[in-house]
Amino acid sequence: MDATKIIEILAYTIPSIVTGAVAYYLFQSYFKDQQNTRRWLLQKETHKEALPLRLQAYERMTLFLERISLTKLLIRITPISNDKNDYENLVIAHIEQEFEHNLTQQIYISDECWSIITTAKNATIQMIRKANRTEGIDNADQIRELLLNNLLEKQSPSNAALAFIKNEVSQLW
After folding, report:
1. DSSP 8-state secondary structure symbol assigned to residue 156
2. Chain segment 163-172, per-residue pLDDT in tens
């Protein structure tokens, strides 16, 4: 083959290779853009469907924390008898029942939020148990009085968890 034939072949081959590379690049970027658009639309649709469920879960957990707040709990649950152990068990059973009723909500809220809510529940139960074991407490009314006086000095565990929920929900927007 002589040099003119090689130059002639290169004259036809190089532009077709360049055209093919440009077409490949354009198709790749087009398909990548289409894939990103589909992914974004899918996320948008999922977010639109999941947001109400998440907000409802936060609402239910807020209600749970309000219901186990000691000030409201002690007013709502009056002692059946004077026995302090019966009252402790009754109040703790109400807290556990409320918690079990809302267990499924953990699917829709963050792990950190669920952990804080569980900690608030456990801290509330611990406060009740500690009050029952305090010396000088002989009946259920004295437990209620001691717990309410303790809440005047320090914040209820539910309040910290409520603040966290409010912060987390504000980040959803």
Report:
1. -
2. 999 999 998 7
Q: Which amino acid is at 66?
A: E
63-90 confidence digits (pLDDT tens)? 999 999 999 999 999 998 899 999 999 9
Read out DSSP for 59-110?
HHHHHHHHHT-HHHHHHHS--SSS-HHHHHHHHHHHHHHHHHHTGGGGGTS-
* Residues whose CB falls within 8 Å of the CB of residue 75, separated by 6 or more in sequence, listed in order: none
Q: String of b and e for 1-40 (b: at least 16 CB within 10 Å)?
A: eeeeeeeeeeeeeeeeeeeeeeeeeeeeeeeeeeeeeeee
Q: Whats the size of the chain, residue-wise?
A: 173
Tens digit of each residue's pLDDT (9 = 90 or more) over 94-116 = 999 999 999 999 999 999 999 99
Categorise residue 24: left if φ over 0, alpha if ψ from -120 to 50, beta otherwise: alpha
- The position carrying tokens 């504000």 is 170
Q: Which residue has the higher pLDDT, 103 or 173?
A: 103
Q: Both tokens of residue 21? A: 């590379």
pTM listed for this prediction:
0.73
